[in-house]
């Protein structure tokens, strides 16, 4: 068992062959090796994962998941090979970037279901404040404000299914 931290969020992770247990939830995982990246499939979702060279894989390394960099740290033993270390809790994403669908939009960085909307139009928010909680692969992913501002619009509601890139909140 190991504690894995990605984007400031920690998870308890254990690798059991082709199964990975993340915070008590089991996921069947497959890895398809490629030249520039590997394709990791877990719980029916697939990600492109690029790892540092074999000799440079250690806690604190940077991995790319779907072309986004993440710092991956861990304490303890994960089990399995180093290539599996990067992909298990990849659904955890850093603070979202502005969405392509609206000026000032905060976009979903993964597909999932909206569990909770923590803000409403007209509210003032601080950088890093919780905006929305998305569920993907039975894990909760907190979407936070990339900057301080006023919530102009919240075009999603609880229970909504969203795709990567969909606008969740619009900030002014």
Features of the shown structure:
four-stranded antiparallel β-sheet; OB fold (Dihydrolipoamide Acetyltransferase, E2P); 2 domains; 2% helix; 1 helix; mainly beta; 172 residues; eight-stranded antiparallel β-barrel
Secondary structure elements and pairings:
Blueprint: E1 2-6, E2 9-16, E3 19-22, E4 25-32, E5 38-42, E6 45-50, E7 61-65, E8 68-76, H1 82-85, E9 105-107, E10 112-117, E11 124-125, E12 130-136, E13 139-144, E14 149-153, E15 161-162, E16 167-171
Antiparallel strand pairs: 1-2, 1-8, 2-3, 3-4, 4-5, 5-6, 6-7, 7-8, 9-16, 10-12, 10-15, 11-14, 12-13, 14-16
Walk me through this protein's architecture:
The protein has 172 residues and is mostly beta strands. The chain has two domains: 2-85, 2-Layer Sandwich (Glycoprotein, Type 4 Pilin), CATH 3.30.700; 105-171, RNA polymerase II/Efflux pump adaptor protein, barrel-sandwich hybrid domain (OB fold (Dihydrolipoamide Acetyltransferase, E2P)), CATH 2.40.50.100. Helices cover 2% and strands 50% of the residues. It contains one helix and 16 strands. The strands form three sheets. The protein has an eight-stranded antiparallel β-barrel with strand order 1-2-3-4-5-6-7-8. Strands 9-16-14-11 form a four-stranded antiparallel beta sheet, with no helix packed on it. The longest helix is centred in the middle third of the chain and has 4 residues, at 82-85.
